[in-house]
Amino acid sequence: MKRIILTSIITAAASSAMAAERAEIIVEVAPGADNIAAQVDFAEPVQDWGSTEVVSVDAGSVEASIKLLRQLDDVISAEPNETVNAPTPPEQPLHLNRVMSVTSSSETVDAMFNDPLFSRQYAWETYNAQNPGASSVSHAVGVSVPYRPLTVAVLDNGFTDTSSFNWAGGYNFATSSNSHSLPIGPDFYAKDINFEGVHGQEVASVIGGAQNDGLGNAGVLGNATFYASRVLGVDPASNTTAVLVNGLKWAIGEPVTNPDTGSAIPPIPEIPDIVNMSLGNDSQTSCPAALQSAIDTAHSKGILVVVAAGNTDGTGTLQLTYPASCNNVLVVGATDQQGAAASFSKSGAAIDLSAAGQDIPVYSSAGGNQVNGTSFSAPLAAGIIGNLWQDIPGFTADELTSLATGAVNPLTSGTNMGTGILDASKLQEDAIASIDPPDFELRHPLEGIVGAQDMLAFLDRGGANYGHKREVRINTSMAGKKAVVFQTDDTQSIASGGTTAIQGASGPRFLVDSWDSAKQYGIQKCSSVSGTGCSANTLVPLDMPGASL
């Protein structure tokens, strides 16, 4: 590759800066690209993550350097390597590790779990006029029947090993020099237990803290698998865009190089269904191109990326910053127990929906706390959506986002907080209503939805031979008519001499006793089970995939 020598230009641009001051730029590079710093004479290499590199330039020449870097054939994007933080909590948390036997401010939460903080989880209450900030989580979790447990990746800091939470694995990407830094590698657990040092663990506990184990709070997803991507340091709880980008790439199964060793970082064992990011930049409203590229890759893989809207600093509403300002993310604002926008929550047109984020019970190695912040609204929304997704895995991330933004309750006060407060029960109901089953479904009796007494009727007197039985399930309104099954010929016509009505009912299901797999069958709506007064002369073939009229 050609080496670009532009010292005179850069020197002129940096004339007002002290020579010792340096600034970092994150460069997204094309596959197979040569080292970027080696192609120019104004940048020094800092980190090489593989698909992204970090270079340093004179602090006064950042803008000029970026313009020049963007002209290189190997460069996809170049931007300042900004700082990313865990949001500053609006108020110090209420520590409950010594007050684990607590009483609820509301008496409507069912005692479904023995977790001592569960009675304070007002979002789990049933939404009504007395509970305007609730999300009906208890009911939704209670009726959930997981078909496929989900995998969740949490990008944060302060992950701790507790008996109430099981991390399947993780990786540390945080590289800043601070009092609790770890080398880039598989050791991602926090070494210091304080509020800042357990932020990620508390976030994770909202999504998937163990249920009914007598410790702390109860998470929404009791059967999910969790992976930690540590992208923030501790004291301060910050790092850079480059670390965030590569921590996200690892979390979604993309290749990443260890900049310290030059070797490939082992891939995440499972591609997650959901990624949660309760973090952000303090001031940058535009989404860095490298971060947007990683988020777009996650979206293309069908991964739902949930992010916190961010907290204000007490000076009023501020604009959303990245990752909340990025595309293809679900942005969650915070509300309080009264259903009002939390005083600390950022607001704006880019917020998709809201969830409880004030006085939220969490648990970590530091004990039980009640905390405030959009950091905890995002994982609550992620858990609620995941609770549905594990039951009906056929939904896509985009479909779930659309369903979630519609399954909401109104805020009692506040504007620009998305469509409303996410409601777990409404989400389930709307999801089921969105599935359009065929009017009639044909099943083998053993596949039907029947009780034990009904199963007895399927038994032949001579034994359990189900070969000549079928269940017909009716999913449509019959409007006073009967669903009649006909044995027919190739004509699929009621008028044909080879067509005979064999069985019928008005629903919701009935058993066909004399099914012959060698014959053809059709179905139609008729006035009587004898096959008279039918809605049409032409039958709809009845087979295992189902039929619609």
Automatic annotation (TrEMBL):
The entry's keywords: Hydrolase, Protease, Serine protease, Signal
Indicate yes or no for the key word Phosphoprotein.
no
Q: Which Pfam families does the entry link to?
A: Peptidase_S8
| Signal peptide stretch | 1-19
Domain named Peptidase S8/S53: residues: 151-404
* Keyword Transmembrane helix attributed: no
Q: Which InterPro entries match?
A: Peptidase_S8/S53_dom, Peptidase_S8/S53_dom_sf, Peptidase_S8_Ser-AS, Peptidase_S8_subtilisin-like
Q: Where, by residue number, is the active site?
A: D156, H199, S375
Q: Which PANTHER family does the entry link to?
A: CEREVISIN-RELATED (PTHR43806:SF11), PEPTIDASE S8 (PTHR43806)
Family to which the UniProt record says this protein belongs: Belongs to the peptidase S8 family.
The name under which this protein is listed is Peptidase S8/S53 domain-containing protein
Species of provenance: Marinobacter halodurans
